[in-house]
Recover the amino acids of this structure.
């Protein structure tokens, strides 16, 4: 099986096919989502000490925090989906 990686910023990547949602972290429900994932040890912090600007929800229910803007990651994701497969 071939995996396509999505750059989520600062040298970090996730498997594109595992992404369910790319969300903005600024609302109360997103903070709750992040806190619950942290308590349940499902939280992956890929911010490298920077401010969280995106929350990525993966198919296996893990939550990934990224320092890249939500729009930037969404554009990269859309570009991967449009790319023809070899």
């Amino acid at each position: 099986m071939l995996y396509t990686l999505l750059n989520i910023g600062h040298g970090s990547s996730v498997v594109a096919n595992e992404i369910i949602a790319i969300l903005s972290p600024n609302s109360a429900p997103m903070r709750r989502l992040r806190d619950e994932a942290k308590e349940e040890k499902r939280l992956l912090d890929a911010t490298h000490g920077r401010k969280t600007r995106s929350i990525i929800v993966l198919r296996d229910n893990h939550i990934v925090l990224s320092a890249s803007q939500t729009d930037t990651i969404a554009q990269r994701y859309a570009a991967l989906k449009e790319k023809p497969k070899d």
User: Anything to note?
Assistant: The longest strand covers residues 5-9. Residues 16 and 47 are 18 Å apart (CA to CA). The chain has one domain: 5-82.
